[in-house]
Fold:
Amino acid sequence: MSHRSSWERYDRRGLSITAIGGLLFTLDIPLLRLADGDQWTMIFARGVLMALTITLAWLAYRWINGTSEPFINGRAGLIVAATNTLANIMFICAVTKTTAANLVFILALNPVFCMLLGAVWLRERLPLAVWGSVALSMAGVAIIGWDGVSTGTYIGDLLALGVALCTAIGLTVVRRSGSNVIPSLAVGSFVSAGIGFFLIGSDVARLSSEGWVWIALNGMLVVPLASALIALGPRYIPAAEVAMFFLLDTVFTPLWIWLIFGEVPSERAVIGGLTIILSLFFLGLWRIRSRRIEAGREAVPVHPV
Structure:
């Protein structure tokens, strides 16, 4: 009984952490669009604020818990810092170079990349139920992105593809190492900010005061908290399942864009969003059921033959 409760708490904790992180990420694109700045200025502003926030949170954590974890936790920390640097830059560039529909559609390929990396690198065997859920989610993403594919630019789509791949690599590395790599997100943000600062010629006034407010909300609260929760997720559940919660972007981002900018989601977007929600719901039910069956089998005493 205690073993079953332990596993259920373990899974529920991972699912809760990643679900909240995924929902927070759906605010990222709307906040960047509200900032209405050029790509490199936003990369600088967002990177500086994210790096500052994550670093202060890490220092507070060390002081409260009396731990002595390094800022960059080994090779895993270095890899996550590198992938996060690239992802930060490519994401904001993609926001300015392609449509929101195209962006969330391509980013939703993240679970596919995670499964491929997990199968090849970690030798993970995913049950058919997980593959079926991902396939259903991809069908929903395809429905949502159908209208936007023809309107997105070639460069922006490639940048979005790079973001999905970098994120999948980072999640897989965290899954394999089990290390705390949250401070590495600050390193990636700082490096991307440095690149942006160099390319704008230190002219930070290119972003309006209102734009700085939206970037501050994005870089100091929404993205750091979401990134931290997503980085913790693979310590409790497989990286491919963590990545599936990025698909919430395809459901809620069009909703926020509609509420803020008056862009009404198409009928296909609504149908695709419901398909994705159903796939995640059935995956959650399957995980709870499989854990209960496993716990029940372990609770049955072996007959001493």
Notes: The first helix runs from residue 2 to 25. Residues 2-299 form one domain. The CA atoms of residues 35 and 210 lie 7 Å apart. The chain has a mean pLDDT of 80.
